[in-house]
Specification:
Distance between the termini: 30 Å
Number of helices: 0
Radius of gyration: 13 Å
Strand order of the largest sheet: 1-11-10-6-7
Structural class: mainly beta
Number of strands: 11
Helix content: under 10%
Length: 107
């Protein structure tokens, strides 16, 4: 497990499709937010990363900029203040990168 100098920025978005944090993509979005993870580099891996926020998990992402990995949540109300945030590739716990030990949630 690595604690990295990556950061998470949560911001409003006009996305038409997002995830509910339980493995489903949805198109009805009450309060969608971009979950942008910033890093100066992304090491290549065989498996795609999964963003974990507490008990929620996000599998679908895009790279809107070179140093950004963007996930999208359908409703910011699903996020809990104080939850741990991490990225993980596959089932390899050693690949876990801690983004934040305590999430701050903008409403």
């Amino acid at each position: 497990m690595v604690v990295a100098s990556k950061r998470l920025v949560i911001s409003p978005t006009a996305a038409l499709v997002a995830e509910d944090g339980h493995g489903r993509q949805v198109t009805v979005l009450p309060k969608p937010r971009s979950l942008d993870v910033y890093a100066s580099e992304w090491r290549g891996r065989a498996l795609d990363p999964v963003l974990h926020i507490g008990d929620l998990h996000f599998h679908h992402y895009e790279h809107p900029a070179r140093e950004v990995m963007r996930f999208t949540i359908d409703d910011v109300g699903r996020l809990n203040r104080g939850d741990e945030v991490w990225l993980q590739w596959g089932d390899d716990v050693a690949s876990r990168i801690i983004i934040s030990r305590s999430l701050e949630v903008p409403r």
